[in-house]
Hints:
The structure is a single chain. 40% of the residues lie in helices and 29% in strands. By secondary structure, the chain is an alpha/beta fold. Helix 1 (43-58) crosses helix 2 and helix 3 (103-109) crosses helix 7.
Amino acid sequence: MYILAIETTGAFASVALAECGESRGGAECRILAHVEGHDRYSHLQNLTPQIGQVLSDAGISVDDLSAIAVANGPGSFTGIRIGVSTARALSQVKGIPCVPVSSLEALAMRAGAKAGRLICPILDARRSQVYGGGYLIEEDGGAAVLKEVVKAGPYTIDEFMEEIRDYDEVFMMGDGVDTCGEKIKEIRAGGIAFAPEDIRYQRAEEVALLGAVRFAADGGVTFENLEPEYMRMAEAERKLKAKQAESRAAEQTEVNSNG
């Protein structure tokens, strides 16, 4: 089977195509083609040509695909929307199942298995906040198995560092390292390693590999059921809800004063 994978949650959009077969771990895959953009946050212009390029490089068509794996968040709100919308459109037109994949889990898979090491992908959520999680990667019959031990979610960097304080060896990944690295060093002097830039950021290849395992396990979802995972409201939505709450409070005050 062929799995098309889309990753748009970070600064650079990427697309991969994997050929997969069944194995003990659920799916055994090889990457046939991969392309990554070089222009920051240019997903809208680049994603469709990237999809066309990986299909062309592999010599297959959209009709040959078994599933579309997409990183559905967390990360860039705009990037998530672009990736999820593109996957939905392809799924609806071609009747291909979708497989949502956590961007944090896919990023953690880039680190590779090492006994006792906690893998912590952290994505910049601005205002000294991150989307983060903590994972152990273990080998099971030759397949890498991901185990979540620190719940994925939105944290201040202080909150996240408190969550991982009991782990002696921590490997941190993602653009949260870029924005919060100095703060992390202030909080904790030792036991922390930052991923080098060549494996620090999100990439579609790991989305393909995780997507294949999930697809083998549950068959994916229809386009109507593919949902983004923002982990928190966008700034505009927060402001709108705050304004609505203020209006309701003012209306209630007026009713009370007139009553």
